[in-house]
Amino acid sequence: MSNDSVKAGKAIKGKCPSQVKTVVLANQNDSLNYAFGYLNGNEVAMYVFAMDSTGEQKKEFIAYINKGLKSNITNPQIANMGEQIGKSIKEQESVGLIGEPSLATDFVLIKQGFINGLLGFTEQMDGTQAGEYIQNTMNNIKYGSVKEDGEKFLAENALKEGVKVTESGLQYEVLKMARGKKPAATDRVKVHYHGTLIDGTVFDSSVRRGEPATFGVTQVIQGWVEALQLMPVGSKWKLYIPYNLAYGEQGAGQMIAPYSALIFEVELLEIIK
After folding, report:
1. Active site residue 47
2. What is the spatial distance between Cα 240 and Cα 188, in angstroms, rounded to a whole number?
3. Choosing from 126, 203, 215, 271, which is the catalytic residue?
4. Given 172, 204, 240, 263, which residue is catalytic?
5. What digits encode the pLDDT tens for the residues 199-210?
């Protein structure tokens, strides 16, 4: 999310329009600072100021973020909360943005993001987008090596004899080919499978449990959805699945980190009608 110019914010009726504006988001760090502020401001708006139809309480609250308490307080609770928000923003400087020491803190962007989120100004991002941007970017920072290792593994694996690569990037190796019927997207199937990370760590295995799994063809990760519709019943394939066809930027559970490439041995036992 980037922006090449600074613009005055569009007026938002009853919501202190003079306070909102677009800002320059020239790089990832800028966007993280802004998204962090926006997400927090948006949550305060939803849970604290939901009944502030005129925007007057928000206006006073914004003033106290910078000014703190003063003698002629009209609403002590709002003033105190504004001061605490200001201190919370300041604390990011010592611990690093969102607790990550490598990320520089930009108070101007955090404050403006907070104000824009508080006042519902969505020209650059909304609350959902801010939250997703923070989570995905922080995962990328924390788990970037997982992504790089997976991409390197798949690039080398694609060159091995017997490994086929589909247009989506799914890789598979036929361990046993059968002549049975291929499942359709609307079918349910019974399979045995054994799932590992690229380092061989087992995270799930119906084989080890001694009981096949049954599910709809489209009720699994995208790499499986594609592979199952290519496999005849009775076949056994080894799947090498890129993170974007597996659990993506979020990961799954304690063992599958964000950006993890996965390996499955899958035996298609039966189509269940």
Report:
1. no
2. 22
3. 203
4. 204
5. 999 999 999 999
Q: Of the residues 193, 240, 243, 259, which is catalytic?
A: 193
d(CA 228, CA 217): 7
Determine whether 203 is an active site residue.
Answer: yes
- Name the 3-class secondary structure at 145: helix
pTM recorded for the entire structure: 0.65
Residue-wise pLDDT for 120-165, tens only, equals 889 999 999 999 999 888 888 889 899 999 999 999 999 999 999 9
Distance CA 187, CA 202 (A): 28
Q: In the annotation, is 264 catalytic?
A: yes
Partnered with residue 267 across adjacent β-strands are 192, 236
| Residue-range domains of the chain with CATH | 17-125 (no CATH), 144-272 (3.10.50.40)
Q: How many helices (H) and strands (E) does the chain have?
A: 7, 7
